[in-house]
Amino acid sequence: MSSRTSPISQPITIRRAVARDAKRLTRLVRGSGAYEGMYAAAVAGYRVGPDYIEAHRAFVAVGADEHGGRVLGFYSLVLAPPELDLLFVADEAQGRGIGRLLVAHMQAEARAARLDCVKVVSHLPAEDFYHRVGAVRTGTAFANPPAVPWDRPEFEFRIPSE
Fold first, then answer.
1. Does residue 125 sit within a domain?
2. What angle do CA 88, 16, 162 make, to 5 degrees?
3. Where is the N-acetyltransferase domain (predicted)?
4. Contact at 8 Å (CB) between 72 and 25?
5. Would the pLDDT of 162 be above 90?
6. What's the pLDDT score for residue 75?
7. How many structural domains are present in the chain?
């Protein structure tokens, strides 16, 4: 099996993000291979700051390693209006089910907050991922130059009550 498609081989913990995670999360966003080439400008100056982490339900997936844990991915859930604002998995950790774990965790958080749906404006290269994890395509977010000069697919996760 290639490392891109191998299952999770180390224990993964999902925990609430804290202010000291901000620099690691910013590096994860800016270093994402999904934002290379024509997409690079969209994240070039992006910053996930301590204030953002404090204001939203941000969670990190941490893998156990010899250094005591490494951030493998994260997401941020905004409650009003309900939206999955950010979801990133480190390039070297993709294909191992971490994104799926983060989505399942987000859905549990949304359910606990009594949300019935969560909107996602997807990055074009992530469109297939959202289909695979059960999001339903609901429309298109149109380009907003210069910040985002391309149309993006909109999805919705429907959150059934338990």
1. yes
2. 90
3. 12-162
4. no
5. no
6. 98
7. 1
- What is the pLDDT averaged over residues 151-160? 96
The arithmetic mean of pLDDT across residues 110-119, rounded, is 97
Residue range of the domain that includes 119: 12-158
Tell me how far CA of residue 10 lies from CA of 5, 16, 67, 68, 74, in angstroms.
14, 19, 13, 12, 17
d(CA 107, CA 111): 6
Cis, bond preceding 81 (omega within 30 deg of 0): yes
Q: Name the burial class of residue 90, with classes exposed (0-12), middle (13-18) and buried (19+) by CB atoms within 10 angstroms of its CB.
A: buried
Residue 152 lies in a domain: yes
Report if residue 2 sits inside a domain.
no
Cβ-based burial of 110 (10 A; exposed 0-12, middle 13-18, buried ≥19): buried
In a domain, 69, yes or no: yes
Q: In this structure, are residues 72 and 62 in contact, taking their beta carbons and an 8 Å threshold? A: yes
Q: Which residues contact 74 (CB under 8 A, 6 or more apart)?
A: 17, 21, 25, 28, 58, 59, 60, 61, 86, 87, 88, 102
